Amino acid sequence: MQTTFPRLLLKHAAERPNAAAMREKEYGIWQAHSWSSMAKLVEHIACGLHQAGLQRGEHMVVIGANRPRLYATMLAAQSLGAIAIPLYQDAVGAECVFPITNADVRFAMVEDQEQVDKLLEIRALCPSLNHIIFDDPRGLRKYDEPGLVALDRLIESGQALAKSQPNLFQTEVERTSPDDVAAMFFTSGTTGNPKGVVHTHNTLLDRAQAGAEFDKLTAREEVLAYLPPAWIGQNIFSYAQWLACGYVVNCPENASTVTIDLKEVGPTYYFAPPRVFEGLLTSVTIRMEDAGRIKRGLYNYFMAVAKRVGPDRMDGKSVGALQSLLYGLGNVLVYGPLRNNLGFSRVRVAYTAGEAIGPDLFTFYRSIGINLKQLYGSTETAVFVCLQPDHEARADTVGVPIQGVQIKVAENGEILVKSAGLLKEYYKNPVATAEVLTKDGWYHTSDAGFIDAHGHLKIIDRVKDVGRIKSGLYDGALFAPKYVENKLKFFSYIKEVVAYGDGREKVCVFVNIDFDAVGNWAERHNLPYAGYTDLAQKPEVYQLVKECIEKVNADLSEDTLLAGSQISRFLVLHKELDADDGELTRTNKVRRGFIAEKYLPLIDAMYGEKTEQFIETVVKFEDGRSGSVSATLKIGDTKTFAPVKAAA
Question: Is 72 helix (H, G, I), strand (E, B) or coil?
Fold first, then answer.
């Protein structure tokens, strides 16, 4: 698709001027923005930015939730040949300093007072930042800062300029080439400063179009945009594919109304990381455990039917007349109402990515008639590398290479990718660029995996994280921490896991329990608790976690490659891992190295055969204050199993 984002906007506005482009919920009411009104808004913002001095090739940061006027600002910047940089709205001010200074940002578009305060706080560290534009004026009426201006005022000045120079906007749009840089996305920076991933209009739109063709997306789709726009996954679904297909993007009122808004919108095309699907299933499970005996019995009976029949039906296989009849009855009594309650009554295609999804979780959604599939990609590949065809969705693979993608596996097991969606470069970082992009166009993903007999890609772990057990029973055995962590996270009681074992004689793990799921379990077992720290250290909870670990160990013992990754010792952390405390990235990926340094006494205690260890940890609260949490953590031992020998 050799075009640009602004040209696609104008194309939709010309062909379907009155059709809805975006909807936004304000004060409980959905407000629609047509393609023509969106195009006019973009023109006025672009003219306002032009008058304010935004130059072609300059960077402009955008910070906020999914809002039509923020997306319009990104389009306006791109119309002038500038480059949009979405940043995470929940990042603290210090995390914004590097992207802003690295990209010499002069212009920032932010959503509200919270984001304005954040930028004003770090302004002294960002000398180039002299224009801060805000969308929501609430709380900002008495602010008097140089360069701080309301978006409404910018639009007014843009309207005046557009009236006096009616061809300005169109001329600027035509000057922009598909090979011009359109956006930059900063990586999470797990091992140092974030890297700016540079993408052109063409790289983003090529992958957006390839994904759309794979799943036969049309302008009739409805999408709910609720994840951070700074994450390229959300950006592709609610921006690149929105403009490529012309479907409707719906923006929730706020984070707390997403579940309600999901039911009201009834999206046909849906995307969420596994954690969201886990949370939805946990809420269903908790409600059913609290339901009456008849309702619970009905649910359990028909869910057993769904588990037996549903996946085969989704894969287009014959299940027999009796099973079809039972499933149809279950659809009327259980599955249909359940899909409706989850907001998935109209979903045609649902995707998950970012982390592995548990087979039970994957089977649950497909068994009740939701076409849940997995995809594989990254910021550097503009997301779409592998997707699962409708009738070939499996929990243990991430799909097949789609149109325009080539994949090969290096000798060390690393996956290499070639496609038209690859990053142009890492901004101002030629060394890092040369490390991931070969001269003949292959991108080093840093993921270890292989292509199975069916042509599907399987991911094991990050190449750098795959290690070896040293000494002991499993000397030299493969250790894949992420693989082990994901297997444990498949249990609803376990929210996060950090595994260690490379270069050691055995594997030990930190565990975060899922407070809602374990809290509900504790209440049903008449187990009192006073908050997360207290619940996490209950002997009964340790036994619950131990049982989960031993099931994983039994499973690992059957894998000849990974039998040595069985877990010998564990502890349940006294606090939940948090991005604000530096333990997770903003996309909720574990920063294993940082955690190892921060909790070194706990690691030493586990490998030193201690049975408990005192720890005190500094934490940051949502309001910016700091405090501390301390506890004496118990360390548990688990049963490991002899490797199961393969049949001769």
Answer: helix
**Pairwise CA distance, residues 508 & 485, whole Å:** 11
Q: Could you state, in order of their start, the residue ranges of all structural domains in the chain?
A: 5-200, 397-463, 466-637
Decide: helix, strand or coil at residue 131: strand
Q: What is the pLDDT of residues 421-460, one digit of tens each?
A: 999 999 999 999 999 999 999 999 999 988 988 899 988 8
C-alpha 11/C-alpha 607 separation (Å) is 63
pLDDT tops 90 at residue 315: no
* Residue 461, token pair as written in the block: 């772990």
592 touches 511 (CB < 8 A): no
The third-level CATH classification (topology) of the domain covering 5-200 is Rossmann fold (3.40.50)
Kindly report, residue by residue over 349-382, the tens digit of the pLDDT: 999 987 778 788 899 999 999 999 999 999 999 9
Q: Are 4 and 173 in contact (CB under 8 A)?
A: yes
**Is residue 345 helix, strand or coil?**
coil
Strand partners of residue 408: 416
One of 3.30.70.580, 3.40.718.10, 3.40.50.300, 3.30.300.30 is the CATH number of 466-637, namely 3.30.300.30
Q: Are 352 and 364 a contacting pair, CB within 8 Å?
A: no
Residue 248, strand partner residues: 222
Asked if residue 205 lies in contact with residue 246, where contact means CB atoms within 8 angstroms, the answer is: no
- C-beta of residue 274 within 8 angstroms of C-beta of residue 374: no
Identify the helix (H) or strand (E) that includes residue 612.
strand 612-620
Helix (H) or strand (E) holding 596: helix 592-598
Residue 1: predicted pLDDT: 60
Note the residue count of the chain. 648
Look at residue 361 in the predicted model and tell me its pLDDT. Answer: 87
Cα–Cα distances (Å) from 302 to 320, 339, 346, 520, in that order, read 16, 14, 21, 23
Give the pLDDT band of residue 309 (cuts 50, 70, 90): very high
pLDDT higher than 70, residue 320: yes
For the chain, give the mean pLDDT: 93
Whether 204 and 189 have beta carbons less than 8 Å apart is answered as no
**If we measure between CA atoms, which residue out of 137, 141, 88 comes closest to residue 112?**
137
Q: Which of 20, 11, 37, 12 is nearest to 250 (CA)?
A: 20
pLDDT at 648: 39
How many helices (H) and strands (E) are present in the chain, helices listed first? 23, 29
pTM of the model: 0.83
Helix (H, G, I), strand (E, B) or coil at 75: helix
Contact yes or no for 358/490 (Cβ under 8 A): yes
Residue with tokens 């990254």: 378
The top-level CATH class assigned to 397-463 is mainly beta
Q: Residue 73: what pLDDT?
A: 98
Give the Cα separation of 374 and 273 in Å (integer).
10
Predicted confidence (pLDDT) at residue 190 exceeds the cutoff of 70: no
Helix (H, G, I), strand (E, B) or coil at 592: helix
Lowest mean pLDDT among 175-179, 439-443, 503-507, 586-590: 586-590
Q: Which residues contact 317 (CB under 8 A, 6 or more apart)?
A: none
